[in-house]
Design brief:
The complex is a heterodimer of chains A (268) and B (322). By secondary structure, chain A is an alpha/beta fold. Chain A has 7 helices and 15 strands. Chain B has 2 domains: 2-174, 3-Layer(aba) Sandwich (Rossmann fold), CATH 3.40.50; 194-321, TPP-binding domain (Rossmann fold), CATH 3.40.50.1220. Classes of the chains: A alpha/beta (268), B alpha/beta (322). Strand 14 (225-231) of chain A pairs antiparallel with strand 10 of chain B, so a sheet runs across the interface.
Chain lengths: 268, 322
């Protein structure tokens, strides 16, 4: 293995973050930022391969300058080096513009054998950047990988698609998207954390990616999808009936409801 | 245009649901609905697509297309779309759809919206795509400025039309143009049915942190069994290793839409609610009357699941034996 690339995203801690419905944006100050949890599985998979076969794990992220802390976290978890794509021109990107920007940056890096992505991000929840990135780079991809059996010239992967398990063989280069079940991500080691603190993280701007690219494909300009409204789902139509009385009475009432709603039909 | 997804020659039901929604939108716009089917010996199934609402079916029949051959699927779809130029291209938000759609969108340089739960059109005929954001607590409405407007749409949210075997349409056979696959796919095994069972189940009885130990899932399993359902779980218990991940309901687990969802000892984190709020009837059992789960429930019982659930199982058993 020469090089494995792991694209990561910094996201807010979704268990704590609040949403500002007035401006239709998450309130970033309401929760700490962290590496997208799904990306930790991708990083772990890459570092395990590096530990076994050598080579480098390059982690790359697009975001504001604060995203540097996510990259440092990735270094403390075993990544070899890190690149941050940060420029106002990249802001407001949807998955198409994000994947394009990543593709341009990765091409600039030179060769690689494998790109490992997480299944999706917890904030965007699209899972689109991986396959779109592979398309821009002109390489095949395999999504929902639950096991990496062989890596190198020949890759053998296990992929799970709703109830079926497939074995997929490929050459290199390849992009894979791993599921959360593939491994248990390691914690940052003390030695790597100290190293990560001092490490230099390269920052690339739009100007660093030119001249060979189309700048109009970056950021909001290069994003064909537009969120134009947010609504808060209501629970209208729910009865919201709290059953009063003793446990026995409540249980009888619920069973009545099951009968009325024909839920008990066809039970064994 | 609707992508008709097949595996082992069976059309995924989401495709019929998309044809149902597609016809509705097409009627509003005054256009027709087409569908594209890639597979091997699928002509009969192409007829089915017409019965469910397609006016035209582009059929690609080739042994290479029997399995999901990513690059050949993409290549032929991109070519067809370039030629037919549909305004809208819909795919099911299945694993296959979510792997294939972004490839096609990136190749076409068009926008794609993931995992939509609603589709509509505005006064200018643009597609309004509605999808959950922020772990399902917010619904985002999204428009696409490029063409085709592409979306993957969640399974079981759109209504299919009644099958009409007298419906007529046109099957247009196309020769598949083959490119190197680069991937060799081998079906390995059929997995345990659990994962399918929970997303397809009519009844789910789920446990959360109100359970005191892993073995107590047995109490829920008994109720699930008599209701012909399966056991679900909130995330903490899965993370704690009490039950397999296939049982997890919620944002990072399975999105479920059963006829009945019984939440036992589940407080109702936004992440959990995102995975089950589409259930027909929701019953919540929790000792804490202020638990958020009660806000999405149709019926709530403030009480201890250890008392209520066995009583409920017995009551159903008693009535059934009568």
């Amino acid at each position: 293995m020469k090089r494995i690339i792991v694209p990561i995203k910094q996201v807010p801690d979704m268990n704590k973050v609040k949403f500002d419905t007035d401006i239709g944006r998450i309130n970033r100050s309401s929760a700490a930022a962290e590496i997208n949890p799904f990306d930790l599985n991708a990083l772990e998979a890459a570092v395990q391969i590096k530990d076994k076969l050598g080579g480098t794990v390059t982690t790359i992220s697009m975001g504001p300058l604060q995203a540097e802390s996510a990259l440092r976290d990735a270094l403390s978890r075993g990544a070899s080096d890190a690149i941050l794509l940060s420029d106002r021109a990249f802001a407001g990107a949807d998955t198409l513009a994000t994947s394009y920007t990543l593709a341009v940056a990765i091409s600039k890096l030179g060769g690689f054998d494998l790109i490992i992505c997480g299944e999706k991000t917890v904030d965007g929840d699209t899972g689109q950047v991986g396959p779109e990135l592979a398309e821009h780079l002109g390489i095949p991809h395999v999504a929902y990988v639950s096991e990496i059996k062989e890596v190198g010239e020949k890759m053998v992967l296990v992929c799970e698609m709703e109830g079926d398990r497939y074995s997929i063989e490929s050459g290199s280069p390849l992009l894979i998207m791993v599921t959360k079940d593939i491994n248990v991500p390691r914690l940052p080691s003390l030695r790597n954390t100290l190293k990560a603190r001092k490490a230099e993280i390269e920052i690339w701007t739009a100007a660093d990616l030119t001249p060979n690219v189309d700048q109009s494909r970056f950021g909001i300009q290069g994003s064909p999808t537009r969120v134009y409204r947010f609504t808060i789902p209501t629970e209208e139509g729910r009865k919201g009936e709290i059953l009063k009385g003793t446990a026995d009475e409540a249980v009888r009432r619920i069973t009545d409801v099951f009968e009325e709603r024909r839920i008990l039909q066809g039970i064994k | 245009m609707v992508f008709a997804e097949q595996r082992e020659g069976r059309i995924h039901p989401v495709s019929y649901q998309l044809l149902g929604k597609g016809t509705e939108i097409a009627d509003k716009l005054g256009v027709g609905v087409s569908s594209v089917l890639l597979g091997n010996q699928m002509e009969e199934k192409a007829e089915e697509l017409i019965y469910y609402g397609a006016d035209k079916v582009f059929l690609y029949d080739h042994p290479v297309l029997e399995e999901f051959d990513l690059l050949n699927y993409k290549h032929n779809l991109v070519k067809l779309i370039g030629e037919v130029k549909p305004e809208i291209f819909l795919l099911g938000a299945t694993r296959l759809g979510r792997s294939l759609a972004p490839r096609v969108a990136a190749a076409l340089g068009t926008g794609l919206t993931a995992d939509c739960i609603g589709l509509d059109t505005d006064e200018d005929g643009n597609l309004i795509q509605i999808r959950p954001a922020f772990t399902g607590n917010i619904l985002a409405q999204i428009k696409t400025v490029t063409r085709p407007q592409m979306s993957t749409v969640r399974y079981k949210v759109m209504q299919q039309k009644a099958r009409a075997s007298n419906r007529r349409g046109e099957i247009i056979k196309r020769d598949a143009e083959l490119v190197p696959s680069l991937l060799t796919i081998k079906k390995q095994e059929r997995l345990g049915e659990v994962n399918i069972a929970i997303t397809e189940a009519d009844v789910i009885v789920s446990g959360g942190r109100g359970l005191k130990k892993a073995a107590d899932f047995g109490i829920l399993a008994e109720l699930a069994e008599i209701l012909g359902g399966v056991v679900g779980s909130s995330r903490p218990l899965v993370d704690g290793g009490w039950i397999a991940r296939e049982h997890q309901v919620g944002f990072s687990g399975n999105t479920v839409k059963p006829k009945l969802y019984v939440a036992c000892g589940i407080s109702g984190s936004p992440q959990h609610l995102a995975g089950m709020r589409g259930s027909d009837v929701i019953v919540a059992i929790n000792t804490d009357p202020s638990a958020p789960i009660f806000r999405v429930a149709d019926y709530g019982i403030v009480g201890d699941l250890y008392e209520i659930v066995p009583k409920l199982t017995n009551e159903i058993r008693r009535r059934h034996s009568e």
